[in-house]
Every structure is written in C-alpha cells, then in structure tokens.
Design goal:
By secondary structure, the protein is an alpha+beta fold. It is built from three helices and five strands; from the N terminus they run αααβββββ. α1 runs antiparallel to α2. Bound molecules: zinc ion. The site of zinc ion (ZN) has 8 residues, from loops.
Length: 125
C-alpha cells in the first residue's frame, strides 16, 4: 500500500470519526457533511489505483544489502553511521555490493576494498 493511499484512507477514517463526533454533539449538518466526505475519501482511497505498484513477493524478498544498486550516472553507495556510541559505520558499495564496516564516523574519503572504486571524496575537510 502506498503512503498516498494510506493517507487518503486515514484522512477518510478521521473525517468519519470527526463527523460522527460532531453529529453526536448535535451538530448534525456540519457533522453529516464531514462524515459524507470522510466516506467518499475512504472509498476513493480503497479503490485508488496505486502508482509504482510493486509485486508483494518482490518487496518481501528484497534486502538492502548484497545487490548492486542501479547506476545513476555515478557510483551509488550507502553509508550508515550509528548515532550512539560506539560510533560504527557501514558502507555498502553499489558497484560490487561489498559491505565494509569500520569503527568511527564516516571517513572523508573512502575507497571500496571490494572493487577499488573511490566512492566519495570530501573536498572540504
Ligand atoms: Zn565496490
């Protein structure tokens, strides 16, 4: 389910609840209108065509590591640095899918030990 569709359904639910609450509070006209719009949003969300729909099995079997990333004109990589101590950084090379781990924060430059590619180089250090 895409986030847009979920949002529309969530909005619809919220409007139905709000409409019901206002109706129960005696504001029939106002509450009823909101409630109807909520039902419309809810139904629209349920029947909404999902753009960029993925095969559920494909999504379930997807793993962030161990697969080379699409080359978008430059070498892709993924850097994850822990926020809490001990600081630990993992670098996933998008070219050869090598996962490098190191202690400390993201280094200024990094060359993939798997394929020898320079993944990044910070010019201001
Ligand atoms: Zn590599």
């Amino acid at each position: 389910m895409t986030s847009l569709r979920r949002r529309v359904i969530g909005l619809g639910c919220a409007f139905v609840i709000l409409g019901g609450a206002l109706s129960a509070g005696g504001l029939w006209t106002f509450g009823g209108t909101i409630g109807i719009w909520g039902i419309i949003a809810f139904v629209a969300g349920m029947f909404m065509q999902e753009p960029d729909r993925f095969d559920p099995e494909e999504v379930a079997s997807w793993r962030p590591s161990a697969a080379p990333m699409a080359n978008a004109g430059r070498t892709m990589y993924r850097v994850d640095t822990t926020i809490d101590e001990p600081i630990h950084t993992t670098v996933l090379c998008g070219s050869c899918a090598h996962l490098a781990e190191m202690d400390g924060p993201r280094p200024a430059t990094f060359t993939c030990p798997g394929c020898g590619l320079l993944l990044w180089e910070d010019e201001e250090e």
